[in-house]
Amino acid sequence: MNIGIAYVTPVHKVWLRMEMPDDSTVRDAIERSGILGQFPEIDLEHQKVGVFGKIAKLDAPLAEGDRVEIYRPITADPDLVERKDQEEE
Q1: Where would one find coiled-coil regions in this protein (predicted)?
Q2: How much is the average pLDDT of 64-68?
């Protein structure tokens, strides 16, 4: 099946398309993509992952056309950061 892997940093945007066996999981796709070698800061034990914007477990099965996303940790408390639209007023 054809799936995608997405990961974004402040400097890089990575979008990989790849073929995976039909019984693949989120973890299988991430490991096979090679993205962990490109970005050693990715820690799957602590970072959240998802499929099409919905949080998913690493052992979740994938379907044809799925987009696996690796989310970066939050670095600022959203309750303490003023919203951009409030700053523009």
Answers
A1: none
A2: 97
Residue 17 pLDDT grade (very low, low, confident, very high; cuts 50, 70, 90)? very high
Q: Into how many domains does the chain fold?
A: 1
Query: Which residues constitute the domain of residue 60?
Result: 2-87
Which residues neighbour 50 within 8 Å (Cβ) at sequence distance 6 or greater? 56, 68, 69, 71
pTM passes above 0.85:
no
The domain that holds 50 is classified in CATH as 3.10.20.30
Q: For residue range 19-37, what is the model confidence (pLDDT) as tens digits?
A: 999 999 999 999 999 999 9
Phi and psi at 26, nearest 5°, equal: -55, -45
d(CA 13, CA 16): 10
Cα separations in angstroms, 78 against 9, 12, 16, 43, 89: 18, 23, 29, 22, 19
83: which 2 tokens?
């919203």
